[in-house]
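$ ./design --mode recover --in tokens.txt
reading tokens...
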């Protein structure tokens, strides 16, 4: 029987209560860790997908902004040659491209927000998994790390955050 039906269940679970109410704490903890690893793998896929979505939308926005500039330059060139009707048509197209860019800007913001939210959940899942592994170790059983390849980028980001925070703390000590 699965212990978790949603990823948020993992984040909000109380491992101590789960183990206290279990007839076989070691077995329960192994099952819980397995479910957590599966959840983490799924979360990693979601994070990767969201990151790729951000990149794709950012590229699309950049292309759209180039179109705005292109149509404006065309309108300038057409106007300088005395073709007001063609310049007017180019300005219509510029406005259309600007409207698309404005819509894409909103989508980029939403995509970044989604990515940030998924990363927050992912990190919370990692923390719960680390807690479960520590508890398993306390019971005298070595926990395996079967999801290690999935989390390399998240670990690098976490290491950078810790280093940045450490540098800020050093700065506070040196400059009170």
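writing sequence...
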């Amino acid at each position: 029987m699965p212990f978790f039906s949603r990823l948020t269940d993992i984040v909000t679970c109380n491992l101590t209560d789960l183990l206290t109410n279990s007839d076989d704490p070691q077995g329960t903890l192994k099952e819980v860790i397995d479910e957590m690893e599966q959840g983490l793998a799924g979360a990693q896929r979601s994070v990767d997908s969201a990151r790729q979505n951000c990149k794709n939308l950012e590229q699309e926005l950049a292309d759209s902004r180039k179109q705005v500039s292109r149509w404006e330059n065309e309108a300038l060139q057409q106007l300088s040659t005395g073709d007001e009707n063609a310049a007017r048509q180019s300005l219509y197209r510029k406005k259309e491209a600007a409207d698309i860019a404005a819509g894409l800007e909103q989508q980029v913001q939403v995509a970044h927000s989604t990515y940030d939210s998924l990363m927050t959940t992912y990190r919370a899942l990692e923390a719960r998994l680390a807690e479960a592994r520590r508890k398993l170790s306390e019971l005298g059983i070595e926990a395996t790390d079967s999801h290690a390849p999935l989390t390399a980028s998240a670990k690098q980001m976490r290491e950078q955050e810790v280093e940045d925070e450490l540098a800020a703390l050093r700065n506070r000590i040196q400059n009170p």
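exit 0
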